[in-house]
Amino acid sequence: MLASNFNFMNSSEQSYSKRAFTLIETVIAIGVLAVLLTGFMLVFGPAAEGIRTSVNAQIADRLASTFEQELVQLRPGQQSAADEIKSAFDKAFVYVKNSGTKGNQANALVVYQYRADLRGVPRADGSLPPRVNITGQVAGQDYLVKTMMRRASDPAFRSDLPAVEGAVFFGVCRQLVFRNSQLTPVPKPGEIRNPNFDGRAETGQISGPDSYPESVLAFVTDFHITPSRDPNYFSGLAFGKLFDSAVELAKRPVFSRNMAVRR
């Protein structure tokens, strides 16, 4: 009986040893796996990078589109006698001009994406309130990610910040004027001029929208990213320095878009 058991155990050990991998076989398998992984990264790495670039381009287009649309949407409460804002074009003129005025970071034009509460009561300007806590909430049913452009000093922007998804950008606009039959940005932001030239002599600056002689205002917007979503950051010294460096064209933008608004 003992001999029979011994023979059974011996045969089991032999069969087990036959099923096991040797060290050489294991090393070869690891080498083959490494080659396959390297080939996978070489083939699919550029494709993945292309997908990320495409997604980023889509976000940039969405931000730029909202920026341009909000410039000509005169919301309730945005009329201002002091700023000569009586119409949608007036708002666009003033916002474009002030977006490039050094030391005027309170009027910086910020653009961002935030979770809008679909069940909330619209605010005085017609926009949806933010949804900060989304625990147990369903996207598309309880809240929706919306893109918005506001002035940095707008209280609604401060209330949206806790519900922001992604980064906050701000745009610095420079008017496009005709020079040698081509649209060319003015030398520095914060200036609005007659877009037409008398020969090579450029006309002087235009102070308000009522004095602008054309029906279309063309401009290029440089978009810069901010490093924080803290409400205190946008009223602090750090944001002021970032804004001024962008206005002075000392900082390279993340992306730029040509835009135009019409009376």
Description:
The chain is α+β, with helices and mostly antiparallel strands and 263 residues long. The chain contains 5 helices and 8 strands. The termini are far apart. Mean pLDDT is 82; it is low at 47-55.
Keywords, please?
263 residues, alpha+beta, 6-stranded antiparallel beta sheet, two-stranded antiparallel ribbon, 5 helices, 8 strands
User: Average pLDDT across residues?
Assistant: 82
Tell me the series of helices and strands, N- to C-terminal: HHHEEHEEEEEHE
Portion of residues in helices? Answer: 25-40%
Strand count: 8
Poorly predicted runs are: 47-55
**Taking Cα atoms only, what radius of gyration do you get, to the nearest Å?**
30 Å
Structural class: alpha+beta
Strand content: 15-25%
Q: Count the helices. How many?
A: 5
**Largest sheet at a glance?**
6 strands, antiparallel
State the end-to-end CA separation. 105 Å
Q: Shape, please?
A: extended
Concise summary:
This protein has helices at 2-19, 23-71, 88-98, 155-160, 237-247, and strands at residues 109-117, 143-151, 169-179, 182-185, 197-198, 201-202, 216-225, 255-262.
Set down the secondary structure blueprint:
Blueprint: H1 2-19, H2 23-71, H3 88-98, E1 109-117, E2 143-151, H4 155-160, E3 169-179, E4 182-185, E5 197-198, E6 201-202, E7 216-225, H5 237-247, E8 255-262
Antiparallel strand pairs: 1-2, 1-3, 3-4, 3-7, 5-6, 7-8
